[in-house]
Amino acid sequence: MAKSKKLIIDLSKENLFFEERNQTIKLLNFKTETMSLDIAIFEKEKFIKNSTMVFAHLPKKLKTKLNPTGK
Questions:
Q1: Which of 20, 25, 57, 63 has the highest CB neighbour number within 10 Å of its CB?
Q2: Which residues have CB under 8 Å from 53's CB, separation 6+?
Q3: Residue 2 has pLDDT above 60, yes or no
Q4: Residue 69's pLDDT band (boundaries 50, 70, 90)?
């Protein structure tokens, strides 16, 4: 188990957002081990809640920016 792979990547300063169902989703952390993301949900620029989502549900343009496979 000589993995030096970073398990949690802080995305909060990257300002990565996407729109879904009249809500703005901001990416906070990417957990590479579980391929999940901590997110903040905003509606009309007002914070609603923090939540988690799986990497597979991200829009394609954000998936390519994060590129977890290193390809």
A1: 25
A2: 25, 36, 37, 39
A3: no
A4: low
Of 56, 53, 45, the closest CA to residue 22 belongs to 45
Token code pair at residue 56: 């597979």
Q: Name the DSSP letter for residue 55.
A: G
- How far is residue 60's CA from residue 13's CA, in Å, rounded to a whole number? 20
pTM for the full predicted model: 0.84
User: And the tokens for 67?
Assistant: 């590129």
Residue type at position 25: I
Q: Is the dihedral of CA 44, 50, 55, 61 positive or negative?
A: positive
